[in-house]
Design goal:
Largest sheet: 6 strands, mixed
CATH topology of one domain: Rossmann fold
Number of strands: 12
Shape: globular
CATH class of one domain: Alpha Beta
Helix content: 25-40%
Strand order of the largest sheet: 6-7-8-3-9-10
Strand content: 15-25%
CATH superfamily of one domain: P-loop containing nucleotide triphosphate hydrolases
Number of helices: 9
């Protein structure tokens, strides 16, 4: 089988519990190379747990997972060489300038021409004009773009974006969305976790709905829409929105469960502006 046909990410029967809380209850999915795959679910559905297992930060209780052809449990060092991870909060040094942040990461990865790598990424993420400014002066969207740029140093084939736009304003979210689309356009495989329905709808080639530790639906947006019949209003067919699909499949009224009981927010939608 050629490398191109092997999924960039393969997850089979993944299980994980935290004491009495079963966070994952047999999760299965594949992610094609060069695609954007959205793992959509409420807070506490298990999205971050999946990412932590795939990025070797956490061990599964059962099941198997492979990233870029490497077994997560048996070949963790190879997996780490193949991935980058952007967490829910931007991991940037606010005292340093944008360029200094990038140069630092390039040097930590023992790459040559760290300055050139930094300049190329600054241009790619439209941050050249702000390269010499301290990151403390950046907007939320600029920090997030810098964070994504830092995770790309070394050109890893797979990147995990865990809730990449949480807390951002609409303009900043749009900036991050553009960056994510450019990543996939260059051949990078992106696994995106989100609770924002419009984010999954705008970005993903495929969407998996994770609910109470299980994948309950997985497909393209069109395939998910076909799970619900179109509603007729005055003889005009109305296609169901992703929000309607999600709520119908999960039965979620916005008070779903959580790995941590204190957090019960459901998936969020944003009004277009």
């Amino acid at each position: 089988m050629t490398t191109q046909l092997v999924p960039a990410i393969r997850v089979q029967g993944l299980e994980k519990s935290y004491k009495k809380v079963r966070a994952l209850r047999g999760v299965d999915f594949d992610v094609a190379r060069g695609s954007i795959f959205a793992l959509l679910g409420s807070n506490g559905a298990g999205k971050t747990t999946v990412v932590k297992i795939l990025s070797t930060l956490l061990k599964a209780d059962a099941g198997r997972a492979a990233v870029d052809g490497f077994d997560v449990a048996a070949q963790p060092a190879d997996v780490r060489e193949s991935i980058s991870l952007t967490g829910q909060f931007a991991a940037v040094d606010e005292i340093l300038t944008g360029r200094e942040n990038l140069v630092l990461v390039a040097r930590l990865r023992h790459l040559k021409n760290a300055g050139r790598i930094a300049d190329d990424l600054l241009a790619r993420f439209q941050l050249t004009d702000a390269a010499g400014r301290r990151v403390s002066t950046y907007s939320g969207g600029m920090r997030r773009r810098l964070d994504v740029a830092m995770s790309l140093i070394g050109n890893t084939p797979v990147i995990f974006l865990d809730e990449p736009t949480t807390g951002l304003d609409p303009q900043s979210r749009a900036e991050v969305w553009k960056s994510v689309k450019e990543l996939a356009g260059r051949g990078t495989t992106v696994l995106l976790t989100t609770q924002y329905l419009d984010e999954a709808e705008q970005l993903a080639d495929r969407i998996a709905i994770l609910h109470e530790g299980r994948i309950i639906a997985n497909g393209t947006l069109d395939e998910l829409k076909r799970l619900l019949p179109p509603a007729k209003v005055e003889y005009v067919k109305k296609q169901p929105s992703l929000e309607e699909i999600f709520l119908a499949i999960t039965g979620d009224d916005g008070t779903g469960g959580d790995d941590s009981p204190a957090n019960n927010d459901g998936p969020k939608t944003k009004e277009p502006r």
